[in-house]
Automatic annotation (TrEMBL):
InterPro entries: AB_hydrolase_fold, Esterase-like, Siderophore_Hydrolase_D
EC number: 3.1.-.-
Name recorded for this polypeptide: Ferri-bacillibactin esterase BesA
Extent of the signal sequence: 1-24
Keyword match Glycoprotein: no
Family, per entry: Belongs to the esterase D family.
Keywords from the named record: Hydrolase, Signal
GO MF annotations, alphabetized: hydrolase activity, acting on ester bonds
Length: 303
């Protein structure tokens, strides 16, 4: 079967929609926040290659934006590879930011942003479906950021396993055939619904990635369904996985609640062969956590 992939030659196309308002939960209609100065990391748009993949079932096309280190010899095993959800917003932040790295330091990883081929920073309908786990009532999920039992706030979801299959069967082969990457050193990063997706994969298919980053994960979604997965995680094979939860100030003061970042990390740390950690960003709200957390994640690959 022919692979339906378009390679977009012009880097300028990457910037389409950068001035458009965000129409999704992470940023609402506000301009996208800047990365914290002490973490700032960017990549030139001219160094980014972009591919467009058709969905196998006629859904929205996926935009896959890839940056690879432009100079230097790759490691013998290949570069670590970081798959970042909400790729349109991720690469908007990276293209707008000038790195504040020490002299001689470089980002030593292949960065893959997975978004949608449209002019929006966030495709609300598509990400609501793709990033949320299959669960009872997912077509009319309960919950909102302030009330896990709210009705009618969240859009239909439940497509996370379908999206994971597209990621593993279509997007990873596309990237890993074309770039020198270490398939044994994959990271999955997501914010908000993307953070929920990262937790879902870590708990249901832990072997899919070596490291998971869940930034401001939407634990509230569908009556906090992810907490059921947390209570019954899939077995984690050797050598284990690392899960990093990142949270802003909006999550503070609730560490005794089962849906708090602190409680989630404690539960994850109790799973055999899972190394879980929490990184808190004081003073940052939910939307601000996207640029802050993606910069913090990439900083871990600066050498």
């Amino acid at each position: 079967m022919a692979e339906h992939v378009r390679f977009v030659l012009t880097a300028a196309a990457l910037l389409i929609g950068m001035s458009a308002p965000a129409q999704a939960q992470p940023g609402h209609t506000r301009p996208m926040a800047a990365q914290p100065p002490e973490l700032a990391i960017g990549v030139p748009a001219a160094q980014v290659q972009r591919y467009v993949l058709a969905a196998p079932d006629g859904g929205p096309e996926y935009r896959v934006s890839v940056w690879a280190p432009p100079e230097g010899q790759p490691p013998a095993a290949g570069y670590p590879v970081i798959y970042m959800l909400d790729g349109n917003a991720v690469f908007e932040s990276l293209a707008r930011t000038t790195s504040a790295l020490p002299p001689g330091a470089r980002l030593q990883a292949v960065v893959v942003g997975i978004g949608y081929e449209d002019a929006e920073r966030f495709n609300v309908t598509a990400r609501s479906y793709d990033y949320t786990p299959p669960s009872p009532g997912a077509d009319a999920p309960r919950g909102s950021p302030r009330d896990p039992d709210a009705r009618g706030w969240a859009k239909p979801g439940g497509g996370a396993d379908r999206f994971l299959a597209i990621l593993q069967q279509r997007i990873q082969p596309l990237v890993e055939r074309r770039y020198r990457v270490d398939a044994g050193n994959r990271t999955l990063y997501g914010h908000s619904y993307g953070g929920l997706f990262a937790l879902h994969v870590a708990l249901s298919r832990p072997q899919a990635f070596k490291h998971y980053v869940a930034a401001s994960p939407s634990i509230w979604w569908n009556g906090q369904f992810i907490l059921q997965s947390l209570a019954h995680p899939a077995a984690v094979p050797e050598p284990g996985v690392e899960v990093t939860v990142m949270a802003g100030e909006e999550a503070q003061g609730r560490d005794d609640q089962p849906d708090s970042p602190e409680s989630v990390v404690r539960a994850l740390d109790g799973v055999p062969r899972v190394r879980a950690s929490l990184r808190v960003f004081p003073g940052l709200g939910h939307g601000e956590m996207l640029p802050a957390s993606l910069a913090a994640t990439l900083r871990g690959y600066v050498r």
